[in-house]
Design goal:
The structure is a single chain. The chain is 42% helix and 20% strand. It is of the alpha/beta class. The protein has two domains: 235 residues, Aldehyde Dehydrogenase, Chain A, domain 1 (3-Layer(aba) Sandwich); 144 residues, Aldehyde Dehydrogenase, Chain A, domain 2. Strands 10-9-11-8-7-12-13 form a seven-stranded parallel beta sheet. Strands 5-4-3-6 form a four-stranded parallel beta sheet, with helices on both faces. Helix 2 runs antiparallel to helix 5, helix 3 packs antiparallel against helix 7 and helix 10 runs parallel beside helix 11. The longest helix has 18 residues. The chain is globular, with a radius of gyration of 23 Å. The protein starts with a helix and ends in a 7-residue tail after the last strand.
Amino acid sequence: MNLINDMARAARAALPALAAATTAQKSLAITAAAAAIRGRMAELLAANAADMAAAQASSVSAALQDRLALDAGRAAGIAAGLDAVAGLTDPVGEVIAQWAQPNGLQFSRVRVPLGVIGIIYESRPGVTADAAALCLMAGNACLLRGGSEAALSNAVLLDCVAFGLRSAGLPAAAVQMVPAGDRALVGQMLSAHGLIDVIIPRGGKGLIARVQQEARVPVLAHLDGINHVYVDASADPDQAVAIVMNSKLRRTAVCGAMETLLIDAAAPLALKQRLLAALLDGPCEVRGDAAVQAIDARVIPAVPQDFHTEYIAAIASAAEVAGVDDAIAHIQAHGSQHTECVVARDAAVAERFLGRVDAAIVLHNASTQFADGGEFGFGAEIGIATGRLHARGPVALPELTIFKTLVRGTGQVRP
């Protein structure tokens, strides 16, 4: 018996009903799920507290615990995120291009759902709600496989989503939860070619590496979030300090956190000292090259691997670079094509960085922690994609669709 194949077939059977669903019907399902979350807030927080206690007893890492933890504010944010998705423009059926040929054929390219989406994730209970809502609004069915550390929280959230589906008259098989704890089921998902149309992993490097190595199904993912902030000599000092601190320390466990600070060698010494002192007093351990060590004695020596490391902790690497081109070269050599930032008042420097850095998200004078679908105005996201096929950056509603081309003729035949 292959449980995943059975679940995927049920999900595929739900696709016609999702295709026929109106925007209002899909929005109703999502808002009803949000209302259910608010109505069951105490139950959700109690379930999460039990998940947290088990995680702490099992010595789950601090980063995973941060992603797992819910309080009233985060739980309310999950419900608000669903309401935001329900209010977004329905992408299904959107005409994204139209043209005609001299022979009179009329072409139109329209968005259609991807189909059945498998989502594999760790720790973050909010992904359960976000993924369900985004997949549903884009007309997709989904199989959700959350981590065992969030099993109780995810069960409550799935019940709320199921309530939303029932309220809108949509099939329950549109959103299903794969049992956690059995790693063999992940393997079944990765090999379900022809039944699952795309896999989206969201979690630690080990999980995503396994998915990318083993999948026989297309994958939308990022492996590392080795993100840089380059502070140019022209940067506003107050702005530079605020952006660096927020990029690194607002939440160290998110994939958009800064891991490496690059400082223009031509920047004023006072600015360099402020940047490093702010981080070190944060507190944040700084591992720097010789030039950075010379600025503040508290900086410890960096080794080459530090500049290839996603710390997901209050640790940052730092290096001096000889201007914007050297910063771009450093990012090309060490970055993961996720999120990169330049802090500069010089418009030419900023445009050079924005145009030449190869990453899914490139920012000017803004924190790397804006690498989030909600902050982009997408309502929510399932993850960040750094590949070069189909989607790049936050995976939200448009990225959960593909297109087909409609051709309208008046009897043309090809000579």
